[in-house]
Amino acid sequence: MPASNMGHWYKFVLYYLWIAPHALLAVVSVLMFVRRLHKTFPLFFAYTLYETLGFLARFAAYVIGPGLGTSYRYVFIATLVGSTALRFGIIHEIVNNVFHDYPRLEPIATASVRWLTGLLLFAATMSVFYSSGTLPDNVLVVVRLLGRSVAIIQAGLLLFLFLFSRMFGLSWRSFVFGIAFGFAIFASTELAKWTLELTALTDHSKDLLNLLPTGSYHVSVLVWLGCLLKAEKPAGAATYTAPEIDRWSGELERTPQ
C-alpha cells in the first residue's frame, strides 16, 4: 500500500475510533435514562454523560486551537482527572451492587476497595514531588498513574466476577456484569499498551499501538450498548443464593460487634 494511502487510512480510522465510541456512549446514556437504570447506577450514568461532554470539549479544543496544542492539553488533563475519579467511583458502585444482597459482606468488600483506593491516591499524589518539569507535566504524571491504578483494579474486578459469578448468583447477562466486562476490556488493553511501550518499537508500530486504546474503548461501549439492548432481568438479581454465601453471612451475623 502506498504511504499516502496508508496515511489516509490511518487518519480515517483514528478519527472514527475517536468519534464513534462517544456517539454510541450518548445512546447508552439515553437508554439508561429511559430504562431508569440511572437510579441504580448513578455514577456510571454520570460517567457516560461526562465522557460525552468531555469528548465535545476536547474535539472543540482540537478544531479551534492548533491541533494538539496547549489549549487541547489543558482540556485533556481536566477531563482525564474527572474521568479517572468517576472510574474509581464506578468500582465502588459495582462492588456495592454485587454485595447488595449480603449485608454483612458488603461493608468488608467496600472497606477493602476504599483502603486500596486511598493507598493508590496517596502514592500518585506523592509522585508529583519527584516529577520534574512544568506543572501540567506533573499533573499529567499523577493522573496517568491513577489511570493505571484504576485499570489494574478494574481488570482484577472482572477476574473476581468471573471466578465467583455463580457463587453470588450474578448472571453474565446482567448489566452490572456488562459494566465490569466493558471496563475490564478497556483496562486490560491499557495495561497491554503500557507494557508494549516499554519495548523497542518503530514509529509505524507506535502509530498502530495508539489505535489500541481507542479501539478497545469502542468495543467496551458496544458491550454496554449490547447489554442494554438485550431483554435482561433486573441488574443485581440473583438466580439463587449459594449455600456458601449464606454460611459466611451467618457466621458474620454471629460475630460480636
List the helices and strands and how they pair.
Layout: H1 3-34, H2 42-64, H3 70-98, H4 106-127, H5 135-164, H6 175-196, H7 203-209, H8 211-229, H9 243-253
Helix pairs in contact: 1-2, 1-8, 2-3, 3-4, 3-5, 3-6, 4-5, 5-6, 6-8
What does this structure look like?
There is one protein chain. This protein has helices at 3-34, 42-64, 70-98, 106-127, 135-164, 175-196, 203-209, 211-229, 243-253. The N and C termini lie far apart (71 Å). The chain has a single domain (3-253), classed as Rhopdopsin 7-helix transmembrane proteins, CATH 1.20.1070. It has 257 residues and is an all-alpha fold.
In short:
With 257 residues, this protein is mainly α. It has helices at residues 3-34, 42-64, 70-98, 106-127, 135-164, 175-196, 203-209, 211-229, 243-253. The protein has nine helices and no strands.
